[in-house]
């Protein structure tokens, strides 16, 4: 008995230095990220000594580098702040298969610890034409190993589409390219993606058709499925007429006044009308871009896939607010599609350039949001932070392409038209 007790004491004394060293290391280590904590919970049954050895070797094995905790504080609206320039983006050699609801913003937060790494993630995935639309089944990489160079900031941009090039265009039916007759900061690639997604007003939605029945014995409809649609003016539907199939994604309300402006839409396919009987129009789905369901809407199809939009100075100064963006993201910038709260009835025309302006102390505005008393300071000069090109107009709202931006802006930021004789420049 005495020999056993002596052996136990000897073992404890021998293990004490290693235990104390490991405890000191744990106390000095930074807090684990939510992703790391989740991983530790899943592996709670693993041997603790194995876990310590893995922690000591963290980041040395390809694909095992842990994401930083990304705890750099948040803005007042709860959005995480970007990591400092001195913090290197982690290397995560994993591939994610996109599921419904995923965004590059959310995936960057989950895998890399901070959502602001999304432009870099996009650069690693040149197969993603538009970073604001990714679809179930897409594969997303989080490092440049085995793919695009890590120094590459974005997929290569093509030159502007010249007038008369329509006959040479090889874009798919689900794309709608926008070009200008002047050199701009962002140039829409020939093969990329201005889908027909956009803003639809309540009146346009009321006049749209709607899928109410199908002969298909399934929830999600596909190519060659027969559908039956209700139209407000069903007698105007003719055999052979083609339609976009779309659904509403979310409401668009004014960020300052709360007024309702319509709905963001997402195009999911196309259909061709076959005829009308018993008050319903019959059609067949001939193109599918995303899942199609009963209840989705139909709007007349446009055969013109390219749209020349020459810059055109506004005849008078018009001011308003940025409403929303096509992508559901808190900050807006170059190459994104956004909506403003003025349209045809206000004098806005296609080709007008509008400037997003700020009058604020940089630190104060970073901690506040539009509508707060300290967001704008009338004593300061207006600073132009972005330029938008109007590419489509409705009665009370317009769709714009962000040409340039020197910093991110948000829904609720102010804009003013660039008029003849007034310099349009970023400061």
Task: List the main descriptive attributes of the protein structure presented here.
six-stranded antiparallel β-barrel; alpha+beta; 427 residues; 17 strands; Thrombin, subunit H; disordered C terminus
The average pLDDT value, as a whole number, equals 74
Q: What is the ordering of alpha helices and beta strands?
A: HHHEHHEEEHEEEEEEEEEEHEEE
Which fold name fills CATH's third level, the topology of the largest domain?
Thrombin, subunit H
- Largest beta-sheet details: 6 strands, antiparallel, barrel
Tally the helices.
Answer: 7
Tertiary shape: globular
CATH architecture of the largest domain: Beta Barrel
The share of residues in helices is: 10-25%
Beta content comes to 25-35%
Radius of gyration: 27 Å
Number of domains: 3
How far apart lie the N and C ends?
Answer: 84 Å
What does this 3D model show about the protein?
The chain has 427 residues and is α+β, with helices and mostly antiparallel strands. It is 17% helix and 25% strand. It is built from 7 helices and 17 strands. The chain has helices spanning 2-28, 34-42, 48-56, 104-112, 118-123, 202-207, 362-366; strands spanning 95-97, 139-141, 177-179, 199-200, 209-214, 226-230, 242-253, 260-277, 280-288, 297-300, 306-308, 319-325, 337-340, 353-358, 383-393, 398-405, 414-417. The chain has a 6-stranded antiparallel beta barrel with strand order 5-6-9-8-7-10. The protein has a 6-stranded antiparallel barrel with strand order 12-13-16-15-14-17. Strand 15 (383-393) and strand 16 form a beta hairpin. The longest helix has 27 residues, at 2-28. It starts with a helix and ends in a 10-residue tail after the last strand. The model is unreliable at 1-67, 146-195 and 423-427 (pLDDT under 50).
């Amino acid at each position: 008995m005495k020999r056993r007790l002596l052996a136990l004491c000897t073992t404890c004394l021998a293990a004490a230095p290693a235990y104390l060293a490991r405890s000191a290391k744990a106390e000095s280590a930074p807090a684990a990220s939510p992703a790391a904590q989740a991983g530790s919970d899943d592996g709670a049954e693993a041997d603790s000594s194995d876990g310590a050895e893995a922690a000591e070797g963290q980041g040395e094995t390809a694909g095992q580098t842990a994401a930083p905790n990304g705890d750099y504080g948040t803005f007042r609206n709860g959005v995480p702040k970007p990591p400092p320039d001195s913090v290197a983006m982690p290397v995560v050699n994993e591939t994610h298969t996109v599921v419904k609801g995923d965004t590059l913003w959310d995936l960057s937060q989950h895998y890399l610890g901070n959502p602001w790494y999304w432009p870099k993630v996009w650069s690693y995935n040149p197969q993603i034409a538009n970073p604001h639309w990714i679809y179930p089944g897409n594969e997303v990489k989080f490092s440049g190993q085995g793919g695009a160079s890590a120094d590459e900031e974005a997929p290569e941009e093509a030159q502007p589409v010249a007038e008369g090039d329509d006959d040479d265009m090889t874009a798919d039916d689900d794309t709608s390219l926008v070009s200008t007759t002047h050199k701009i900061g962002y140039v829409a690639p020939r093969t990329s993606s201005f889908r027909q997604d956009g803003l639809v007003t309540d009146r346009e939605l009321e006049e749209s058709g709607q899928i109410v029945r199908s002969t298909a014995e399934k929830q999600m409809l596909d190519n060659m499925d027969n559908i039956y649609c209700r139209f407000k003016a069903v007698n105007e539907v003719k055999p052979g007429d083609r339609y976009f199939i779309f659904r509403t994604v979310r409401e668009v309300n004014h960020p300052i006044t709360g007024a309702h402006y319509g709905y963001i839409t997402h195009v999911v396919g196309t259909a061709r009308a076959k005829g009308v009987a018993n008050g319903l129009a019959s059609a067949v789905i001939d193109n599918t871009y995303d899942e199609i369901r009963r209840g989705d809407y139909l709007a007349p199809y446009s055969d013109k896939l390219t749209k020349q939009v020459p810059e055109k100075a506004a005849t008078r100064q018009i001011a308003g607010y940025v409403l929303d963006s096509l992508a559901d993201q808190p900050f807006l910038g170059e190459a994104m599609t956004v909506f403003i709260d003025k349209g045809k009835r206000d004098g806005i025309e296609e080709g007008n350039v509008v400037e997003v302006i700020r009058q604020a102390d940089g630190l104060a505005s970073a901690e506040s949001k539009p509508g707060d008393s300290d967001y704008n300071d009338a004593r300061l000069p207006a600073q132009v932070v972005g330029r938008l090109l109007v590419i489509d107009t409705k009665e009370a709202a317009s769709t714009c392409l962000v040409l340039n931006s020197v910093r991110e802006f948000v829904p609720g930021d102010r804009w003013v038209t660039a008029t003849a004789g007034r310099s349009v420049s970023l400061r």
